[in-house]
């Protein structure tokens, strides 16, 4: 429990800072949106570009772990997406709900937690999981949202509209450019790397402060609270059970990789879904509630996972 608390408490502190700044009017009513735009257009693209530009195949090519963790994420995402669509939600709203149920906070919580539990050996699975979440899962969600937003009826024009929107989206372009940079074999110059590091380091604190600002300035409707609970249950219970089954039973991973996959899948919802919800003006109240409740609930579920790992 102490391991979990040491990672979770700073998250609540940053959310509280944003909440207090808005309540005391230190930051204005547009601050949440503007800080979120900073994250979407500068900080997160810098992080995505740096991660993909500096990654090597030797570091990320762990087929069993990739299949177990990615399989758990994508199965939960698409199952939640289909369920929400059957409830009558639009594709953009259902996509954000699916992301809320499958987007683990691997960067801010997963990396330090794996280092605490597994030592230096835990860094590699945490980094791979972060790459999968912020590049693969996030990109799929953005594509689904953009497809849902286009209004063209002709299939050719519809595809053109979606591709044009994706081509202008920094969250899609930055990892693609980073991957091309890595494939070129050219290293990142040290000044550029430091520049990217500074921007990337601001991603999580800015996103959490923005979340606190949002919670302070907008009253959440009752259906937002009700709509968040199923997503939290799927995230904290359904995803780790599914990923654990894939890791231990289907792919029979070595203990370190199986335990890491379970622990990383049991992490609460990260700030990525909130950034998209605020940016696209969709489901932000539901997502913010999901992040708060899942982060609090993870104190219990992560502790149970740690007990299982210590068996």
Notes on the structure:
With 311 residues, the chain is mainly α. Helix content is 82%, strand content 0%. Helix 5 packs antiparallel against helix 14. The radius of gyration is 19 Å and the shape is globular. The chain starts with a helix and ends with a helix.
Average per-residue pLDDT, rounded, comes to 84
Gross geometry: globular
Structural class: mainly alpha
Share of helix among residues? Answer: over 70%
What is the overall number of helices? 15
Order of helices and strands: HHHHHHHHHHHHHHH
N/C terminus separation: 16 Å
Largest sheet: none
Strand fraction equals under 5%
Unreliable runs, pLDDT <50, ≥5 residues? none
Rg over CA atoms, rounded to whole Å, is: 19 Å
According to DSSP, the number of beta strands is 0
């Amino acid at each position: 429990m102490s391991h979990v608390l040491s990672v979770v408490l700073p998250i609540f502190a940053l959310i509280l800072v944003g909440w207090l700044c808005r309540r005391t009017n230190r930051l204005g009513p547009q601050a949440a949106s503007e800080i979120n735009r900073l994250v979407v257009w500068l900080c997160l693209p810098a992080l995505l570009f740096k991660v993909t530009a500096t990654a090597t195949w030797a570091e990320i090519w762990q087929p069993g772990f990739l299949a177990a963790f990615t399989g758990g994420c994508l199965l939960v995402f698409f199952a939640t997406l289909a369920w929400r669509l059957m409830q009558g939600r639009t594709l953009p709203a259902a996509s954000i709900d699916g992301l809320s149920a499958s987007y683990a906070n691997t960067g801010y919580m997963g990396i330090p937690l794996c280092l605490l539990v597994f030592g230096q050996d835990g860094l590699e699975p945490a980094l791979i999981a972060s790459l999968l979440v912020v590049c693969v899962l996030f990109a799929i969600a953005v594509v689904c949202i953009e497809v849902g937003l286009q209004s063209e009826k002709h299939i050719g024009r519809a595809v053109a509209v979606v591709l044009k929107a994706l081509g202008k989206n920094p969250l899609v372009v930055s990892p693609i450019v980073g991957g091309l940079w890595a494939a070129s074999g050219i290293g990142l110059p040290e000044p550029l790397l430091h520049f990217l590091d500074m921007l990337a380091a601001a991603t999580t604190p800015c996103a959490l402060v923005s979340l606190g600002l949002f919670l302070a300035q907008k009253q959440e409707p009752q259906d937002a609270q009700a709509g968040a609970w199923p997503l939290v249950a799927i995230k904290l219970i359904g995803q780790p059970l599914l990923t654990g089954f894939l890791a231990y039973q289907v792919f029979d991973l070595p203990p370190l990789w199986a335990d890491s996959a379970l622990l990383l899948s049991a992490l609460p919802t990260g700030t990525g879904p909130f950034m998209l919800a605020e940016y696209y003006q969709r489901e932000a109240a539901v997502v913010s509630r999901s992040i708060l409740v899942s982060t609090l609930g993870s104190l219990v579920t992560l502790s149970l996972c740690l007990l299982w790992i210590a068996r």
